[in-house]
Amino acid sequence: MKKIEAIIRKTRFEDVKEALLEADIEWFSYYDVRGVGKTRQERIYRGVVYDTSYIERTLLTIVVRDINAEKTVEAILKTAQTGEIGDGRIFISTVDDSVRIRTGERGDISLYNPK
Questions:
Q1: DSSP-assigned letter for residue 10
Q2: Which of 9, 61, 73, 105 could, after both became Cys, cross-link 100 (CB 3.0–4.6 A)?
Q3: What's the total number of domains in the chain?
Q4: Using CA atoms, how far apart are residues 53 and 17, in angstroms rounded to an integer?
Q5: Average pLDDT along the chain
Q6: How many CB atoms lie within 10 A of CB 19?
Q7: What does pTM read for this prediction?
């Protein structure tokens, strides 16, 4: 199993969500987060200078079976990528085990409902 954490632009969240559903990724968590990037910019709006180094983003946390990891990453890449600085990051790590609390099922079967 793989844990995929993606930090994306808030403006791309709805598109990424739809792409994940189309890729049969039925469940994930997301959080509104802020980060500080290396690139510093100041923007002026109505005469007030705003520091844009504090960037609002959305963090997606998804645990998938190994066979679904690559299609999950591709779905995020296709929809979150704008080609501009600040598109975000994707982190992939290995999950040793998973347990469905309701049934006690362990491993891959705990991640999805068999049809």
A1: G
A2: 105
A3: 1
A4: 26
A5: 89
A6: 19
A7: 0.83
Of the candidate ranges 1-10, 13-22, 52-61, 65-74, the one whose mean pLDDT is the lowest = 52-61
Residue written as token pair 């509104």:
32
Residues forming a β-bridge with 90: 6
pLDDT at site 79: 97
Domain with 49 in it: 2-111
CATH code: domain of residue 85: 3.30.70.120
- Distance in angstroms (rounded) separating the CA atoms of residues 69 and 66: 5
